[in-house]
Each structure stands twice: as C-alpha cells, then as structure tokens.
Amino acid sequence: MPLPKRTAGRKRFVVHLGNVGYAREPEADKTRRYAQRFPNTYFIGIDHRQVLQKRPKNWLQIQTDFNTGLKSIKDNSLSIISSEMALGHYGPRAEGPPGTPNERKYTQKTLKTAYAKLKKGGKIMLAINGETKTRRIKRDLERAGFAKEEISVRELKPEETLRSRWTRLGGFQIIAKK
User: Fold this and answer.
1) pTM, whole model, 2 decimals?
2) Superfamily for 5-177?
3) What is the pLDDT of residues 83-110, one digit of tens each?
4) Where are the chain's structural domains?
5) CB 53 within 8 A of CB 28
6) Residues near 48 by beta carbon (within 8 Å), at least 6 away in sequence
7) Which of 36, 111, 31 minimizes the C-alpha distance to 66?
8) How far apart are CA 133 and CA 125, in angstroms?
C-alpha cells in the first residue's frame, strides 16, 4: 500500500504497533499526542482494533496485525518503529496466545519485516516486561538482521513507566538501530 499523497515531502515516518490500547486508557493516546506535537512527522498506527476518533492529517491508522501492516509499507522508508508491551506479547489470534511457539514465530517474522522497512539509521524501540522475554527478543532482533552492537537494553526509568497502562508494569526498553 503506498502512503497517501499528503505524506509527500515528509522526512520522518514513525510506526506505532499496538497503538489503540485497551480499557481504561484513552484510545491511541500516544499516537494522538505525538501526531499533534510533531506535525511534520507522519505517524502510522497498526493495530487489530479500530480507532473511532478523528485523527490529525499526519496520522494513518491501519487495522490489521503488525506483520501485515508493516508489509504494506515501502522498504527502507521508516525512521522509527515503536511498540509498548505489544510486539513480543501477542500476535494475531490465529498465530497463538502469548508464550506459545506460534506467537514466538510471529514475533520473529515481524521483526524481520520491521528490519526491511526501517531506513538506514532507523530504530525499533520496544518496551518489554520480563527478563527472559527481553533476552529472547534481543536474540530475535539479531536474527532479523540488527547488529549485536546496535542493540541496547535497559530497565525502564520510573518516569517512563508512566507512559501507558502497560508500561506501569515496569520492564525494559530495547532499542535496535539498523
């Protein structure tokens, strides 16, 4: 799927995976706030849930699973791909519930697709909870093509845990640069 004509001339494209959110959280709150704050950046939300609210012109919402949504975007075009407690925590229902081998394969497949979509110097930023899951995601990033020395892992800072309902659980920030 080509990006809409209104993206012409923009240099930064940011994807938020799993951006719609769930109960007791404003719908797609992070994407909405960032789209308003950075009008020259184009945001693409990908989630299996629908966004009902009106969106700024610099925000495209794709209602599908992460991998299918990413595949619809041109290779080497994205500046940032972001996911908070989404990628690595669940996949489409057909792939299997969290922690199952099918969910892990889905995560690996999606990270490989993400690598292809990032431009040189682009970053994938993941908030993950659980040390075992974090180590597994780091290995999966390497298998997807990210250089080991370009992957950093650190605990979320206390102020970062306030970003969403899910980050309040604590966890780790993983950043990998292409």
Assistant:
1) 0.86
2) Vaccinia Virus protein VP39 (3.40.50.150)
3) 987 886 655 554 555 555 677 788 899 9
4) 5-177
5) yes
6) 63, 64, 65, 92
7) 111
8) 15
